[in-house]
Fold this protein.
Amino acid sequence: MSAKEPWTKRRAQRREPGETSSSGAPSQGRPMNAEHRCDRCGAQAYVLALLPSRRELLFCAHHYRQHAPALATVAVDIQDETERLARREWPALRS
């Protein structure tokens, strides 16, 4: 997949049943993992934004920082897990 493909096409190709709750809200209890990919660049996603249309957008930390001001005005809910990127979380640095 190239970065020029629309995010909706990439998102539809990898959507799994039960990915959201029946209300369409992101499942806050389930953390994102390596299977969740940024809709813009394909890197691991750490932020899920739920739009009023109940569409979900996934962002890596870089693209979330880039689009955060606009998302804050339109998103119904934002699940931000960027704190997981802290150096203390890196496996190689654990004692």
User: Anything to note?
Assistant: Strands lie at 47-50, 56-59, 77-80. The first strand starts at residue 47 and ends at 50. Residues 49 and 57 are 5 Å apart (CA to CA).
